[in-house]
């Protein structure tokens, strides 16, 4: 199953510019994938809430895999463009 939410796996905190990685977060509503800044606190929520941590982990792995796939496709596209140029 493809993740239908944002494919973003890395980002920088807009407040302190710390490099953030998508991770499993937990709140009273449940588990979710999001960014957590060690200096500013919870930064953003990138998924719906999951009932279990395992479910969130599956989505996290899927999101990371999707990101690798995007990078691979971008590199391929880059090579093709260079060949044409
Ligand atoms: Zn921050």
**Could you tell me the strand content as a percent range?**
25-35%
The helix/strand series, from N terminus to C terminus, equals EEEEEH
Shape call? flat
Q: pLDDT average, as an integer?
A: 90
Give the strand order, joined by hyphens, for the main sheet: 3-4-5
- Provide the number of structural domains: 1
> Which spans have pLDDT < 50 for at least 5 consecutive residues?
1-5
**Associated small molecules:** zinc ion
**Largest sheet data:** 3 strands, antiparallel
Number of helices: 1
How far apart the termini lie comes to 37 Å
How much is the radius of gyration in Å?
A: 16 Å
What is the number of beta strands?
5
Helical content stands at 25-40%
Structural class: alpha+beta
Provide the fold topology.
Layout: E1 10-12, E2 19-21, E3 23-27, E4 30-37, E5 41-45, H1 53-84
Antiparallel strand pairs: 1-2, 3-4, 4-5
The structure holds zinc ion.
Describe this structure in words.
By secondary structure, this protein is α+β, with helices and mostly antiparallel strands. The chain has one domain (about 10-85). Helices cover about 40% and strands about 30% of the residues. A hairpin with a 3-residue loop joins strand 4 (about 30-35) and strand 5 (about 40-45). Residues about 1-5 have low confidence and may be disordered. Bound molecules: zinc ion. Zinc ion binds near residues 13, 16, 37, 39 and 40. The site of zinc ion has 7 residues, from loops.
């Amino acid at each position: 199953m493809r993740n239908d939410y944002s494919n973003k796996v890395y980002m920088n905190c807009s407040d302190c510019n710390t490099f953030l990685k998508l991770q499993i977060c937990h709140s009273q509503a449940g588990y979710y994938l999001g960014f957590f800044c060690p200096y500013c606190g919870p930064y953003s929520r990138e998924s719906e809430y999951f009932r279990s941590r395992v479910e969130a982990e599956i989505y996290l792995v899927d999101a990371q895999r999707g990101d690798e796939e995007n990078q691979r496709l971008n590199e391929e596209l880059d090579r093709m463009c260079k060949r044409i140029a």
